[in-house]
Amino acid sequence: MSTLHQDIAALTPRLQRYARALLRGDVAAADDLVQDCLERAISRSHRWRRGTDLRAWLFTILHNLYVNQVRRQCRAPDTVPLGDTDPADAPDSGERHVIIDELDKAMQCLPADQQEILLLVTIEGLKYREVATILGIPEGTVMSRLSRARERLHQLLNGERRPGLRRVK
Amino acid sequence: MSYRTPITDADLHAYVDGQLTEARRQQVEAHLARHPEAAEQVAAYQNLNDALTSRYGELPAASEILPIPAPAPRSRRWRAAAAAGWVSIGMLAGWLAHDLNPAGRAGADPLVVDLERPAAFAHSVYSVEVKHPVEVSGTEQAHLTGWLSKRMKADIRAPRLTDEGFQLIGGRLLPSTNRMAGQFMYERSDGQRVTLYVRRGDWQRDDTAFRFARQNGTSLFYWIDGSLGYALAGELDREQLLKLAHAVHGQLHGQNAVKPPL
Predict the structure, then answer these.
(1) pTM of full prediction above 0.80
(2) What is the pLDDT of residues B30-82, one digit of tens each?
(3) Sequence-ordered list of residues with C-beta below 8 angstroms from that of B83, at least 6 positions apart, any chain
(4) From the candidates B9, B15, B45, which should be mutated to test the interface with A, based on the most A CB atoms within 10 A?
(5) Residue whose C-alpha is closest to residue B116's, from B229, B227, B194
């Protein structure tokens, strides 16, 4: 059954990219997460049914591990509270960094599930239906959370209420 | 123009994400042409997608890609896996054989854990690649061996196997169990490929005889020479592969044993 292993190997770079985005550049932690995911996938590969979507199956495993990790971290005392942190509070160190850090910080202000939806849709290019399967939520919920995520992200990055209301010509 | 279904916020998201049917996409475009605030909203979503893609869209470098872990060779998990049928009889036989080995269990033998298995797996992953079999081409051999030597902090050389009918097509750097590894790939005119896997390790010995293993149709000879471990893998029969292993060993033998740290 080396083909399953090869198929998993072919998807590994995408899992790593996704984990690195979720953990925003903490490469070691992201790779640890993917390593756990791969180990779990290999040890449970008898549960995967040939012909079903291997990518969705792997991302589901990764999502579950990530959620557990986020839960653990939320109990840890040194975490930044999710919700209303303002990226503008961060000390700036040069123009180029500001833009990059702002996106990282803005992403951090979104609830974990909204971050995942945004990344799965934009980076992975997954269908809303596939994202719903991976996260175990209805497709309609994916849509409403995606909408909220984009509105909030836009607001955080542009310091305004709604996209579309910025300029009056 | 009238719409059968009104354009919703969900349509605007799906438009940006390229998830609409062609018919619906055209309806949304007509809507955007007539509603500048909707068009501006779409542009804002698109900007976000672009920012996310440029910040997070890059795949990890080839040398950073994690290897697929081997199933843990112990406990219920192993037996369940074997029962499920995805462990080859060959690997199981190898595991049983290693239990008789004075080095102890297969899991404790660094030659098996750090050399045989990762080499076999790296071979199975890359030797089937059509487009990207190697990271650096064999035409840049000096660059390839220089790069691998630098990264692995050892004198890494690619043996010549042209007399045996194999051309070097290139190589790559790989993450191994706890160190980096290099892989050279060779190809015969009939398309048959062999790979030579090389890495440093905590072998606790500085030379061994050839060991032979067979996994899923792939044969391997592996050995320790100085600080380096080598594994030659291919879908060849034992005699053919042994001949190549002798050629590799003959060219590389002793190069690291006689190279004292300066």
Answers:
(1) no
(2) 999 999 999 999 999 999 999 999 999 999 988 889 988 876 554 444 445 54
(3) none
(4) B45
(5) B229
Considering CB atoms only, which of A6, A100, A123 is closest to B124? A6
SS3 call for B217: coil
Give CA–CA dist B186/B158, Å, rounded: 10
- State the DSSP code for B19: -
Residue B238 and residue A33: Cα distance in Å, rounded? 39
Tens digit of pLDDT per residue, chain A (169 long)?
457 888 899 999 999 999 999 988 688 889 999 999 999 998 888 888 877 889 999 999 999 999 888 766 654 444 444 444 444 444 433 443 445 578 888 998 899 999 999 999 999 999 999 999 999 999 999 999 999 999 999 999 887 554 444 443 3
Put simply, whether B8 touches A (Cβ < 8 Å) is no
Which residues have a Cβ under 8 Å from the Cβ of A36 and sit 6 or more positions away? A65
> In this complex, how many residue pairs, one in chain A and one in chain B, have their CB atoms less than 8 Å apart?
117
Contact B70, B109 (CB under 8 A): no
CB-based contact (8 Å) between B48 and chain A?
A: yes
- Asked if B129 has any chain A CB less than 8 Å from its own CB, the reply is no
**Partner residue facing A150 (CB), from B37, B48, B80:** B48
Two structure tokens written together for B150? 């630098």
Q: Does the predicted interface ipTM exceed a cut of 0.85? A: no
Q: Which of B105, B44, B1, B49 is nearest to A118 (CA)?
A: B49
